[in-house]
Amino acid sequence: MLLNRFATKAVFTIRSRPVAGALSKFHSSTAIDAKVAVLGAAGGIGQPLSLLCKLSPEVDELSCYDILGTPGVAADLSHIPTKSTTTGSLPSPVSWPPTHDKGLADTLDGADVVVIPAGVPRKPGMTRDDLFNTNASIVQKLVEGCAKFCPEAMIAIISNPVNSTVPIAAEVLKKAGVYNKQKLVGVTTLDVCRANTFVANSQGMDPRDVDVPVIGGHAGITILPLFSRVPGVNFSDEELEKITVRTQFGGDEVVASKAGAGSATLSMAYAGYLFTENLLKALRGEEVTQCAFVESKLTDAQYFASPVRFGKNGVEEILPLGELSAYEKAWFDKMMPELKAQIQKGVDFVCEK
Q1: What are the angstrom distances between the C-alpha of 152 and each of 33, 114, 162?
Q2: In this structure, are residues 132 and 345 in contact, taking their beta carbons and an 8 Å threshold?
Q3: Secondary-structure percent of the chain, ordered helix, strand, coil, rounded to 5
Q4: Prediction pTM value
Q5: Alpha-carbon distance 163 to 170, whole Å?
Q6: In this structure, what are the phi and psi dihedrals at residue 14, rounded to the nearest 5 degrees?
Q7: What's the average model confidence in pLDDT over 320-325?
Q8: Are strands 288-295 and 303-311 parallel, antiparallel or unpaired?
Q9: Angle at CA of residue 182, ends 268 and 230, nearest 5°
Q10: Is residue 3's pLDDT more than 50?
Q11: Cα-only R_g, the chain
């Protein structure tokens, strides 16, 4: 069973049952402790994401980093009575002789999972591609820190445009000689959450019983929800087109509704938390399947989002796509050139410097 379904179940309860299966050896101080680092923890996504991670029984140490406000965020979170400890760090002041960023080093040291929501948010009229120049540099710098201070950690990229920032992260790690395709993922869980919600609302179903695989990428038409895989749904051609496009451009709906005040922060934080908690369960020995944007050979795109089985080593298996409906195949053919171009843009950003 795909744990994409947990994306709706977790709305109602945060589970605290013991983790099944043998524990993997984490990189933190003991075999049972898990450290999660959130880079961009004081932002619109970072704060609610950090809150949800603080509440998660899977997190033992929560380490927050941002350019402003992080000590206050961490102090606030530390008053919540859960088992996890919380720290917050800022970049080190500029000094001479030059040295590394001790704040980032402290945040990343011993981290098992690094979640990166850092970057500027979308505003009305902006596409994810418009964010590229600013967020590309931010992701590059933070992943350089990961390569230096926690090279074996799982890195989960939320910063948009994910179709480009994941390739940027990969090229940075390759340059540092520490790239492991099993350890780098782009978080596309929000696409699954939206697809599940929209189907449930339109069909009068319980969202806990809906599990829509979403493949491709994480921007516009590169997002392809496979509604044909959902038992019991009945869409007219017009309804199918409408719900597909709404899933693809759900972020635009939020940006417009916030009228310049931000983008999808709360739902993205929730999706990032779901992904992170499931990832920690996998690292501890549970078998977890969830959609993610990873290096893949399913298509001729170097990276592709699809259902992925996670385990103690991170990405364990990329599951086959299976048959697409004629409608889905048409969208697939339409999206592939754009997805490959966005991936290449990320690769070129690092390699052409």
Answers
A1: 15, 10, 21
A2: yes
A3: 45, 15, 40
A4: 0.90
A5: 12
A6: -100, 115
A7: 96
A8: antiparallel
A9: 50
A10: no
A11: 19
* Span 284-315, pLDDT tens digits: 999 999 999 999 999 999 999 999 999 999 99
Residue the block writes with tokens 């399947």: 289
Peptide bond into 161 cis (omega under 30): yes
Q: Which residues contact 66 (CB under 8 A, 6 or more apart)?
A: 39, 40, 41, 42, 43, 46, 73, 90, 118
Model confidence at 121, pLDDT cuts 50, 70, 90, reads: confident
Active site residue 79: no
Q: How many helices (H) and strands (E) would you count in the chain?
A: 11, 11
Q: What pLDDT sits at residue 130?
A: 75
Burial class (CB in 10 A: 0-12, 13-18, 19+), 81: exposed
Prior bond of 97 cis (ω within 30°):
yes
Give the mean pLDDT of the chain: 90
- Residue 101: the pLDDT is 87
| Residue 32 confidence (pLDDT) | 61
CB contact at 8 A, 95 and 79: no
In this structure, the dihedral spanned by the alpha carbons of residues 301, 264, 271 and 25, taken in order and rounded to 10 degrees, is: 80
